[in-house]
Write a structure and sequence with these properties.
Oligomer: single chain
Structural class: alpha+beta
Order of helices and strands: EHEHHEEEEEEEEHEHEEEEEEHH
CATH superfamily: Carbon-nitrogen hydrolase
Number of strands: 17
CATH class: Alpha Beta
Number of domains: 1
CATH topology: Nitrilase/N-carbamoyl-D-aminoacid amidohydrolase
Radius of gyration: 17 Å
Strand content: 25-35%
Largest sheet: 7 strands, mixed
Shape: globular
Distance between the termini: 30 Å
Length: 270
Amino acid sequence: MKFTIGLCQLNSGDDTTANRAAAVRAIGEAASAGARFVMLPEHADYIGTVEGKRAAAQPLDESNYLQELAGCAKAHAIFLHIGSFLERRLERIYNTAVVFAPDGSRLAVYRKIHLFDVEVPGGASFRESDTISAGSEVVVADIDGLVCGLATCYDLRFPELFRQLVMKGARLLLVPAAFTMQTGRDHWELLLRARAVENLCWLAAAGQWGTTPPNHSSFGRSMVIDPWGTIIAQVSDGVGVVVAIIDTEPQDAMRAAFPCLKHIRRDLFF
């Protein structure tokens, strides 16, 4: 099967109104370019202070932001991955991905499992857990007949998650992100291509780009990678949209000729 995917690279900040407008414009641009499925980056709704994140968080079933994006999916008759938004759930906040169908209905919800609590080179410190609670469910979604595995940003460093997604049938891995500039220069492409190659999967990653408040700088370089690890489409520096064709026929041939997934020692590792 084949379908066209569109990736939106944004520069979201602490102005939620401007963020919404930018997301809607990018979705429309990707849909106009022929995308059947569109993906936004992580935190397309808000990037800012801890206090701002808490104020911006909305319940899943009461979010006017999600309602607007569901309306975009329906208006353009596309599948839409929102990247992620700040979800308020009782007393907790989650970094939550949602996938909508072309009729605006909700197909899947994934709450980011691995939280970014690190000291990166250059002295910057990030503690996602100061605001966000970790999810606990491995999630796949059927998008136009193709099983897709959901992950978010820092999840990329944990290959066991991606192997679980593939064991659930994933043929396309989806990674919205706000990867830091410091780590992105050296690790972003390397990790994305590794996750694609080791699982013989298509992989699509939509990233935030540029500086955002209070002191975050994102690497961007949104890309689509084929199951052999070749980058077939990419957004360079700046805000932008790219479309690419996902084709599972060569993926089937690769998996038949190079059957590493059949060689997994499930008796030892799963």
